[in-house]
Amino acid sequence: MITLKNVILRRSAKVLLNGASVTINPGEKVGLVGRNGAGKSTLFALFNGTLHEDGGDFSVPPSWRLAQVAQNMPETDESATDFVVGGDTRLVELREALALAEAGHAADPDDPDIGMALAHAYTDLHDAGEHDAVPRAQALILGLGFKVQELDQPVNSFSGGWRMRLQLARALMCPSDLLLLDEPTNHLDLDALVWLEAWLQKYAGTMIVISHDREFLDAVTDVTLHIAHEQLTRYGGNYSAFETLRAQQLELQQAAFSKQQDKIAHLQKFIDRFKAKASKAKQAQSRVKALERMEKVAPLLAEADFSFEFKEPGNIPNPMLTISAASFGYLQDDGPPRTILSGVNRSVLAGQRIGILGANGQGKSTLVKTIAREMRALAGTVTEGKGLNIGYFAQQELDVLRPQDTPLEHMVRMARELGPNARERTGEQDLRGFLGSFNFSGDMVKQAVGTMSGGEKARLVLAMMVWQRPNLLLLDEPTNHLDLATREALAVALNEFEGTLMLVSHDRALLRSVCDEFWLVGRGRVSDFDGDLDDYQRYLLDEAKRVREEARLATREAENAAIPAAPPASVAPQDRQQRSGQARPLKRELAQVDEQLAAAGAEKTALEARLSAPLPAPEIAETGRRLKALNEEIGRLEERWLALSDQIEALAAG
Ligand SMILES: Nc1ncnc2c1ncn2[C@@H]1O[C@H](COP(=O)(O)OP(=O)(O)OP(=O)(O)O)[C@@H](O)[C@H]1O
Ligand SMILES: [Mg+2]
User: Fold this and answer.
1) Is the Cβ atom of 447 under 6 angstroms away from ligand 1?
2) Cα separation of 294 and 439, whole Å?
3) Whose CA is nearest to atom 17 of ligand 1?
4) 50 lines ligand 1 (CB under 6 A)
């Protein structure tokens, strides 16, 4: 059981918890929610012991084994599989113990104690799951969206987002009683997200997860811990249940507040009226006291206090951008450039609002980065309209922030670098005011960016982008890290934006609300996507199946190449009869598999039809999961079918 009693928690001068008390029971699945900067990640630091309470009592059972996702970018050339296996810390310890025992045994083979220690080391290692560590690790890696051929590739050959996925797999690999996940979905696409949900639902220990993703929280949590106004409040139920309860509470609070306001007004009137009269002065005085005593019910202002807008862009070129006969990809130090997308012919027109879809790793970010001039096209041309002013927002942009500098210093530097801007005033006071409109209060404009929370950094980058008055917005996963209120503010601002917009996001709500056409990046091409987001979800599932099939074909080809052809030995006539006898059970099974395949196919069609109708979120998730399982089953059946028909054919040909 985790308990907090009257805990006070501070970061520098900022008080994050002031007398917070809460209990988390073993086995509970807790969603930790709250605004950006409320102190969620700081609370994790308390849980994992990197930070201590500044007051009150905090305790976690000392015997609990803790698993959490390391936040650093791994820089090793270990293979993905080994790296993830290494997440099982107990296994690693026991392997070391075994190595020691083996060394001891080699030095002194006759010492019975060392012999005993060696035997123990072997059993311990076996009990810790050494025998299936590799397949367990690989199941995690594949579940998080990696391809079979990537299992043995070195960690540092993957891009940042994929390396963070490996960090996540490593944490899941570690046997634990307490699992801490801080925004685990930020680097995932829909496929991997659905897989992670299923995995977490089976996790047996106590789990605390920080997330701003409502659908994800609903799928994996049954208790919600809300951090706000320096307090922690526990709600039984998932995020939706919490929202409902909280809305009711706020309503009650609002009602109490209005009632109190009425009363205050009444008292005030009394005081005003009687103050003038000497005879009533005393009564007035007591009323003044009553007014002072009256405890103010906190007004709700703080709840939905954030909104911003993109400034009207000056001139908008049309077309904004023309891409012709272009190839996009990476230059490599050793070897030829790696082309990711080719034959790209596209124009971006003024006022278009384009959602860019595509499974992870297909080249969405490559496309966006090339348009943002972060990368050069490998071939062809990207022609920009005159006066094009790109506002680029991406995950890695957060790294561009200088940790030592404050938000104000960032703004001042940017204003200086961009030179005098006719429409914006660049005095320090103006910049402070501008930051204020993005919820950076007086103190925060002077706080080092390195100490700010993820959401605060993202908000700063957003503010810097808005200040530049772009006419083309290129947004690559802009809502990662942002809390729900800020996401909504962003959606509203994007809807009102008059320029052109290109958006990559796994936030379906955002895509739906701001885009009206979609491009699909996949199989090395960029094409129009005819359909809506439900069609897209189906497309993703089919695509996953296609990739799996390709992998299977590749392995089978490799096997065929490795295994010599059937021996050409001459076959005696009586063998033929024997063979037809052998073929009978095979044919029977083949017929069965045929039937199962037909049934699975029918269910698949039905599920897909269901997904095309508007469904409540939990049902989409559930149907998606079933569809995924079904596709896997179909894959297995097809494989069996092929194996059987191969065998039957071989017998017949024999
Ligand atoms: N070393 C520090 N000095 C001053 N303030 C700090 C320091 N570290 C954190 N803070 C502040 O403490 C607050 C809580 O930070 P924390 O990272 O816990 O927020 P969070 O709830 O995880 O937010 P997010 O949803 O954005 O991740 C933030 O306002 C942050 O700016
Ligand atoms: Mg955080």
Assistant:
1) yes
2) 30
3) 453
4) no
